[in-house]
Each structure stands twice: as C-alpha cells, then as structure tokens.
Design a protein that fits this description.
It contains 3 helices and 12 strands. By secondary structure, it is mainly β.
Length: 170
Amino acid sequence: SADGGVETVIASDWFTGQDGSYGYRMEETEGALPVEMRVRYLLDGREITPEEAVGASGLLTIRFEFQNCCQKDVEINGKQESMYMPFAAFTGMVLDGGRVSDVKVENGRLLSDGERILVAGMALPGLKENLEMEAGLAGGDEESLARRVHELEIPQYIEVTARVTDIHRL
C-alpha cells in the first residue's frame, strides 16, 4: 500500500525434480517477508500521510526505508555471530511529467520519455552491518578496515524528491 503495508505476499521457488527436470512455482502465503519496507512522505519538510499527499502541491519527498528481517547465526573466527541474509530491495515508480519537476533520487536513477519520469532505486539492507561486523572481527589492521567499511556508500534507503502540482494518487 502507499504507506508500505503488505497487501499480498507471493512466494516463488525454482525447483529441480529427481529426474533432472525443473520447474517454477508461485503461490500466495501468510509467511513473513524477509525485508520490511516503510514509506514516509514529507511535504515542504512536514511529515504527512499518503492520503494528505493526494491533491497536494509543493516539495514532496518520498522515502522508502528497508529493514532486513532475516538473520542467521554463523561462526566467524571461532565466534558465534548473527549476520543478515543478503537481499537487494528494488523500488520503482512512474511520475507524470506534467505534474512533477526538479525530480531527484538518492540511491537510484531517473529516466524520462518526455511525458513520464521513471524512478528506479535499490537498497541493500543489512549489508553494511554485516561488513562492519566482519571488519571488527578481522585480523590485521582492524581500525583501517573498519574505517574503510564505514565509509562505503552502501544504499540503505531510496528517497525521491520532486516539486509537485496537484498529485492525483500515490
């Protein structure tokens, strides 16, 4: 939904049969998602609900925040540690070029066909935490490695900002 709430969860799986054949299966499930998403809206710097954004004009920021919910206990250098499973979160949207201008995206790219603007973004929730934890456990020059990992620009969120006029729907 517009606030990041889950409407439907579909699990998919590639499988191989005993005879070497393979297949693909998709089905709705009640299972928890491995990555949760929260969507925040700010209009002219003030946080608003998705409903308040409809019909709005001004500087609109939409921020997609991701939380990796899958951790696994592993042994690293003889110590038990908890690491996040690796996931990439992709988010996209198509904006009406007649109602938006000055579009910017953090951790993504913009494409335009003259009438519409396509926003595509990517985040890697949990990866930076994994690398920082591993750097802290590494031998050698731990401080230098930890500092380099900390300075990496690993996308944790996607943020779109645009000047909008009378947004019809989100």
